Amino acid sequence: MYATQALTHLVPLAAEELDKNKVTPGVLGFLVFAALAVGVWALMKSMNRHMGRVNFEEAPDPDAVAAGPAGGKGKAASPGK
User: Fold this and answer.
1) What sections of the protein cross the membrane (predicted)?
2) Which of 4, 31, 61, 72 has the most CB atoms less than 10 A away?
C-alpha cells in the first residue's frame, strides 16, 4: 500500500473537523518539505567536503614573471643603504 493511499483513507475520518474554506498542506506537505530540506543539507555538506579537497595552484602569469626581476622599478630602496 502506498503512503498516498493510506493518507486518502484518513481524510474521511477528519472530514468533520476540516473547514471547507481553509486549505492547508497537511502532513504530506510537511514531509515533502522536510525531505527536500534534508536533501539540500546533504548536498551542501557534500559540496563543502569536495571543495575542501580541491588543490588549486594558479600558474604564474608569464608577463609578471618576465617583468618582475628585470624591471627593478617600483621597489623601494632598502633602509640600510
Assistant:
1) 25-44
2) 31
